[in-house]
Design brief:
about 80 residues; Non-ribosomal Peptide Synthetase Peptidyl Carrier Protein, Chain A; 4 helices; mainly alpha; globular
């Protein structure tokens, strides 16, 4: 997991959820809605150039796991 990926995702997380991110907090604990999932996907694509699927967010349910998935997708696409 790249530190720059974690840092950028933490900023996105804070913007979308309005609170400090916790690397291991489950998205479901935040009462996540599909609109917020789509917002995360769009911001990741815009800022990191990585296109995540909705399934990625359903599987990678924490910020730490999402950073790992983002890096994996980035490496696969390269």
């Amino acid at each position: 997991m790249g530190q720059s990926t974690v840092a950028e995702l933490a900023l996105i997380w804070q913007e979308v959820f309005g609170e400090e991110p916790d690397l291991d907090r489950e998205l479901t604990e935040l009462g996540i809605q599909s609109v917020k999932l789509i917002e995360i996907i769009l911001r990741v694509q815009e800022r990191l150039g990585v296109t995540l699927s909705l399934d990625s967010l359903l599987v990678a349910t924490t910020l730490r796991a999402l950073a790992d998935e983002t890096d994996r997708v980035r490496e696969t696409a390269a």
